[in-house]
Design brief:
The chain has a four-stranded antiparallel beta sheet, with helices on both faces. A four-stranded antiparallel beta sheet has the order 12-13-14-15. It has eleven helices and 19 strands. Strand 7 and strand 8 (151-154) form a beta hairpin. Among the domains are: 258-331, 2-Layer Sandwich (Alpha-Beta Plaits); 336-421, Ubiquitin-like (UB roll). It has 422 residues and is an alpha+beta fold. InterPro entries: DNA/RNA_pol_sf, Rev_trsase/Diguanyl_cyclase, RT_dom, RT_RNaseH_2, Viral_Replic_Matur_Polypro. It comes from Mucor velutinosus. Pfam families: RT_RNaseH_2 (PF17919), RVT_1 (PF00078). This is Glycerol-3-phosphate dehydrogenase [NAD(+)]. Residues 49-251 form the Reverse transcriptase domain.
Length: 422
């Protein structure tokens, strides 16, 4: 498939460099002979799709190619299919542009699509390389083949240029933002409402009405993408489903639970021997902390070990139990629900000697629906607080974290610490 180029206004990538910075040349690193076929194949694909072209003249910009391991659908590294990428760190260091476009939070996406009943996920084919570079500046993204010594220049954006993601996100959001009619305050409304959210090159279309109206929404999204000269990757399209996988989570009928495929990777995590391995494990666990009660208390024994290069001298059976408890807590994580702003909120808080936390929930038709969990460790000075002050700190912290749900609303805050009610 030949790569197309987005024709929307402001979709062309500018590469303005800082005054006086007109050179970013780094020679190509030697690559293993085992990567020859993969590199040559990728270069040919780029040529066939019109992403690159042979450099017409000498340029003072050159960036080395790298070959990195690529993960398969199960999250394991597949050495048979390496990914060829461009090392543009030197170019990024001299770019004048500082474009930052905020990505939507997973909690915001869930709040808007969680109560919908039909979902479609679209993926744009080679999204980043569908955005063209300014022709007068394209020479700044050049590389030399390590096996043929031929220099090529990118005509379209390369992965790694620091502001390309911002341009892509803004362009797609501007293209589709008017297709959102979600009314989070009345999630049980019988009116047909729909939402379209973009997370980089992933587009999620959700409706709560009829299947026919869902088809109309998806057709409109596809029509706009086609008009913008953006092509879908049909292999990754998920059409008209009740449940979808979204950014590591599974969304179904207003519920949000960790993606079971991610849980398999965590349960099969190899023994932790270094601080770096521990940091990677805790980083993945932290992504799901909104479903794990008192996450900070559970990880209290581990956070201080992340800087240790060798854990063999400090690792004990207690740390093994903590890891096991974290895995158990994640596999039995709370099922989170979409908030119903027409119903009353309840906020439960707690404090221990080492951490504080809060749980926001609603009781609807005698069913408890969990909305959010927050927690954090206490600082050394906060650990010296009295019990009453720690409990109050937990309340204040939870109110701050759940401000967007509770502000200017009546809610219930149960407590077992009577002095706090005065």
């Amino acid at each position: 498939m030949r790569n197309t180029q987005c024709n929307l206004p402001d979709s062309v990538i500018k590469l303005d460099t800082k005054p006086g910075c007109c050179v970013a040349y780094r020679a190509q690193y030697p690559l293993a002979e085992a990567y020859r076929d993969a590199v040559n194949k990728q270069i040919q694909v780029w040529l066939d799709e019109g992403v690159i072209e042979q450099s017409a003249s000498h340029t003072r910009f050159n960036h080395p190619l790298l070959v990195v391991k690529k993960k398969d659908s199960n999250g394991n590294y597949d050495m048979s299919k390496p990914r060829v990428v461009l090392d543009v760190r030197k170019l990024n260091s001299i770019l004048e542009v500082d474009d930052k476009q905020q990505l939507p939070l997973i909690s915001s996406i869930h709040q808007n699509i969680g109560n919908k009943t039909i979902h479609t996920c679209l993926d744009i084919h080679a999204c980043f390389t569908s955005f063209g570079l300014d022709p007068s500046q394209a020479h700044k993204v050049s590389f030399t083949s390590p096996f043929s010594n031929t220099q090529y220049t990118f005509r379209k954006a390369a992965y790694g240029i620091r502001h390309v993601g911002s341009v892509v996100v803004r362009t797609l959001q501007n293209l589709l933002s008017d297709l959102n009619t979600s009314n989070a305050a009345t999630p049980n409304s019988t009116k047909d409402d729909h939402s379209v959210f973009c997370y980089v090159d992933d587009i999620t279309c959700s409706t709560s009405g009829s299947l026919e109206n869902h088809f109309k929404l998806v057709a409109e999204v596809v029509r706009r993408l086609t008009k913008a000269n953006l092509v879908l990757n049909l292999e990754k399209v998920v059409f008209a489903q009740r449940s979808i996988y979204l950014l590591g989570w599974s969304v179904i009928d207003g519920k949000l639970v960790p993606d079971g495929r991610k849980l398999t990777n965590i349960m099969q995590w190899p023994p932790i021997k270094t601080g770096r391995q521990l940091a990677l494990f805790l980083g993945l666990m932290s992504y799901f902390r909104s479903s794990i009660p008192m996450y900070s208390r559970l990880t209290g024994d581990l956070d201080s070990l992340k800087q240790c290069k060798d854990l063999s001298k400090v690792w004990t059976a207690r740390h093994d139990r903590t890891i096991a408890n974290l895995k158990y807590a994640l596999t039995n994580a709370l099922v989170m629900s979409t908030p119903n702003f027409s119903c009353r909120f309840h906020l439960a808080t707690d404090a221990s000697l080492t951490a504080i936390g809060g749980l926001l929930y609603q009781v609807i038709q005698n069913e408890i629906r969990y909305i959010g969990l927050v927690s954090r460790k206490l600082s050394p000075s906060e650990r010296n607080y009295s019990t009453t002050k720690r409990e109050l700190l937990g309340i204040c912290y939870s109110l701050e974290r759940f401000h967007r749900f509770l502000y200017m609303r009546r809610f219930t805050l149960p407590t077992d610490h009577k002095s706090l009610i005065y």
